[in-house]
Task: inverse folding
């Protein structure tokens, strides 16, 4: 029998995903399809929060699941699968944002904003303009906190840092957002 208990500090919790990971590791493609279906939309949402573009977010989500599938044998079953998967998503999204930052230079900002705002009507254009000016790592932590409603512990697990470091990073990202947002409102 597969142990689906996950150690979280001093306590153990049940993680049904570990059962699917074990089955997928043994070649059961339907088990991995279950994990894919369960997390795809949330992974896209995290990627979109960092990249600010739906088309790139969907591509990154596909890469995240490809990487996860390929590296299933490396997954530490003492951790939650979702934490591991979100860590891959955050890191891959930040990498893609850094790689693609030069693409934004060649497009008129108003054109890029209009296109992206049209893609996702849920984001206020003023907020979007402030997010565009932020570093990908700051967008990642804000996305995990505000769009995914992660706790500080979950953010810390995903960013591979302590909860205090996550709290500090979140505070600093909020402050940078506030400064950028207020500056944009003056214009």
Result:
């Amino acid at each position: 029998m597969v142990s689906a208990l996950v150690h979280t500090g001093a306590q153990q919790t049940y993680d049904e995903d570990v059962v699917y990971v074990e089955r997928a590791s043994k070649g059961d493609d339907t088990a991995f399809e279950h994990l894919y279906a369960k997390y795809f939309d949330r992974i896209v949402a995290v990627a979109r929060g960092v990249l600010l573009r739906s088309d790139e977010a969907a591509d990154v989500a596909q890469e995240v699941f490809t990487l996860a599938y390929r590296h299933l044998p490396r997954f530490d079953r003492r951790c939650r699968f979702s934490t591991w998967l979100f860590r891959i998503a955050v890191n891959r999204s930040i990498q893609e944002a850094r790689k693609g930052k030069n693409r934004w230079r060649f497009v008129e900002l108003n054109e890029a904003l209009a296109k992206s705002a049209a893609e996702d009507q849920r984001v206020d254009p003023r907020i979007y303009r402030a997010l565009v000016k932020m570093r990908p790592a700051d967008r990642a932590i804000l996305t995990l906190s505000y769009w995914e409603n992660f706790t500080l512990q979950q953010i810390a697990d995903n960013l591979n840092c302590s909860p205090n470091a996550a709290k500090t990073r979140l505070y600093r990202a909020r402050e940078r957002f506030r400064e950028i947002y207020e500056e944009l409102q003056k214009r």
